[in-house]
Automatic annotation (TrEMBL):
GO terms for molecular function: CDP-diacylglycerol-serine O-phosphatidyltransferase activity. It holds the Pfam family CDP-OH_P_transf. Belongs to the CDP-alcohol phosphatidyltransferase class-I family. InterPro entries: CDP-alcohol_PTase-I (IPR050324), CDP-diaglyc--ser_O-PTrfase (IPR004533), CDP-OH_P_trans (IPR000462), CDP-OH_PTrfase_TM_dom (IPR043130), CDP_ALCOHOL_P_TRANSF_CS (IPR048254). The chain crosses the membrane at residues 36-55, 98-115, 127-146, 161-185, 197-225. One of its GO terms (cellular component) is endomembrane system. It is a multi-pass membrane protein. Keywords: Lipid biosynthesis, Lipid metabolism, Membrane, Phospholipid biosynthesis, Phospholipid metabolism, Transferase, Transmembrane, Transmembrane helix. It catalyses: a CDP-1,2-diacyl-sn-glycerol + L-serine = a 1,2-diacyl-sn-glycero-3-phospho-L-serine + CMP + H(+). It comes from Hymenobacter fodinae. The keyword Transmembrane applies. This is CDP-diacylglycerol--serine O-phosphatidyltransferase.
């Protein structure tokens, strides 16, 4: 029975992604609720792997199911979210409306990244390229920042050229040969986990100071710290 528990949590990740999609394409297009479901999907995605390691269970089916769930929650969802955001931004300009479909570039590269991960033996203890949940959290933070905009960022975030640039940059990072550390603690010794502790501490400070507006900065911090220190650290 215990070997099916991680897969059950993976299915909750997938279900959360489906709920996010229903919010994105609802009549009122509630991207804020969609972002909350994305966060929930990310929580389930974290705990399915954690539980599998704790129970010492794994299987090819579990690995494939995890990728299939991720391609929805962290591939289709961020692409659809960028599509909707681009639609809103392009409505205020003379730029052709069909450019909104460029948001789905992230979906395509997320699928490529997940396929690459499944066949890359180098990524057992670290990552090569930006993980899809991290990419999706950047996108999902945008509606939350717009909803709680205490810094006057609305016009900047809805700038279609900025959104298009974000889609291209995130897509490149997903498949880049960029070594990134994983938040997997084999022990709690500082010398073995210094980069992880520093990242968590700085992330907490950013969240306290900036709220949801800190999320893109936290992902940027994650990439920068990985460049400063090898991913295996």
């Amino acid at each position: 029975m215990k070997k099916h528990l991680p897969n059950a949590i993976t299915c909750l990740n997938l279900f959360s992604g489906c709920l996010a999609l229903t919010q994105i394409f609802s009549s009122d297009g509630n991207l804020v609720y969609a972002s909350y479901f994305v966060v929930l999907a990310a929580v389930f995605d974290f705990f399915d792997g954690l539980l599998a390691r704790a129970l010492h269970v794994s299987s090819p089916i579990g690995k494939d199911l995890d990728s299939l769930a991720d391609v929805v929650s962290f591939g289709v969802v961020p692409g659809a979210m960028l599509y909707k955001l681009l639609q809103g931004g392009l409505d205020q300009t003379d730029v052709p409306a069909y450019l909104a479909y460029a948001g789905f570039i992230v979906t395509i590269f997320s699928a490529l990244r997940l396929a690459k991960f499944n066949n890359d033996t180098r990524q057992s203890d670290s990552f090569i390229g930006l993980p899809t949940p991290a990419c999706t959290l950047v996108v999902a933070s945008l509606p939350l920042i717009l909803h709680h905009d205490s810094f006057g960022l609305t016009s900047t975030i809805l700038n279609p050229w900025l959104l298009l640039a974000l889609a291209v940059v995130l897509s490149g990072l997903l498949v880049a040969e960029l070594p990134l550390f994983a938040l997997k603690f084999k022990n709690l010794r500082w010398q073995d986990n210094s980069v992880r502790f520093i990242f968590l501490l700085l992330s907490l400070c950013l969240l306290i100071g900036l709220g949801v507006a800190a999320i893109p900065l936290i992902i940027l911090l994650y990439v920068l710290l990985s460049l400063v220190r090898p991913a295996k650290a």
